[in-house]
Design a protein that fits this description.
signal; binds alpha-L-arabinofuranose; ABC transporter substrate-binding protein; alpha/beta; carbohydrate binding; Peripla_BP_I; Rossmann fold
Length: about 325
């Protein structure tokens, strides 16, 4: 092509871009996100992280709150497929029952990114990556802390457990991880275990029932999340007992509420589970649209906070 022809072509393209700017603008990535619900402070922080990261990344977010119901999440995914979004993000309320809808997304060539919670599908080609915490390890960390705390003390050590949502990955794995560690210690016994559905209100209600049935027989509460522990703390105080002293309190998440309870001596330890997954999700969505291959598992880095560590970290705690 001659220099003159090239100049004419360039001028034509510039003129076209001025006349029809939208045709030349880069297409925004559209991400449909199927969230679990709004059951806990952790979840609120997770939702805020996803919404603000989408804004920062210039990604159009279609957000659906399933109110802890799998059927609502399945409906949301089908609607994302019908709308031809570029990527689907899913935090599955329960582990099982996803194959059909994920196959539909695959058939529509829409990549699915799992965040926070896993699915138990055998076919791992149904999602491009799973990013989030190792829930078994969280349960183990809770168990190891308790073993250390009770070292050299006589038994029995009677434990009550508040489980998360039935069938959810964190409830299954946190139960298993904890049991794996304390199972070898003959002093430790889980005397009651029931779901509190990851909510403060349910945690309180179930702890009231535990206290009614067991009286002063309870030494330790292991709650699968902070909200249930905070509800249980209220129940323990209303029963005239001192949480953190009469009953050792262990929970998972690391939200401000739990840190405040630790600072007040009402809770003994929290195992961290980080909800701030938004930026990681947006960069994964961009990578997958750009055709990059993602690692199948992206693990979140987390720690354990004791009372003194919680006091130090409280002023800068973000959620
Ligand atoms: O899946 C993460 C868990 O879900 C958090 O521990 C809990 O607080 C939430 O509801």
């Amino acid at each position: 092509m001659t220099i003159q022809r090239r100049a004419v072509l360039a001028a034509t393209l510039v003129a076209a871009a001025i006349a029809h700017p939208s045709a030349f603008a880069q297409k925004k990535i559209v991400l449909g996100f199927a969230q679990v619900g709004a059951e806990s402070a952790w979840r609120t922080a997770n939702t805020e992280s996803i919404k603000s990261a989408a804004k920062d990344a210039g990604i159009e977010l279609k957000f659906s709150d399933a109110q802890q119901k799998q059927e609502n999440q399945i409906k949301a995914i089908r609607s994302f497929i019908a709308q031809k979004v570029d990527v689907i993000g899913l935090s599955p309320v329960v582990e099982s029952g996803w194959d059909t809808v994920l196959q539909e997304a695959k058939a529509a060539h829409i990549p699915v990114i799992l965040t926070d919670r896993a699915v138990d599908s055998k076919d791992t080609s149904l999602y491009v990556t799973f990013m989030g915490s190792d829930f078994i390890e969280e349960g183990k960390r809770a168990g190891r802390w308790l073993e250390e705390f009770e070292k050299g003390k006589p038994g029995p050590i009677n434990i009550v457990e508040l489980q998360g949502t039935v069938g959810s990955a964190p409830a299954i794995d946190r139960k298993k991880g904890f049991a794996d560690v304390i199972g070898g210690d003959p002093r430790m016994k889980i005397i009651r275990s029931q779901t509190g559905d990851f909510t403060l209100a349910k945690g309180k209600e179930v702890m009231e029932a535990f206290l009614k049935a067991e009286g002063k027989n309870i030494n330790v509460l292991y709650a699968h999340n902070d909200d249930m522990a905070l509800g249980a703390i209220q129940a323990i105080e209303e029963a005239g007992l001192k949480p953190g002293v009469d009953i050792t309190i262990i929970s998972i998440d690391g939200t401000k509420g739990a840190f405040e309870a630790m600072a007040a001596g009402k809770q003994n330890v929290v195992v961290e589970c980080n909800p701030l997954l938004g930026p990681q999700l947006m960069s994964a969505a961009k990578d997958v649209v750009a055709g990059k291959t993602l690692p199948k598992r992206i693990l979140t880095n987390e720690t354990v906070y004791t009372q003194s560590q919680a006091v130090a970290a409280l002023p800068s705690r973000k959620y």
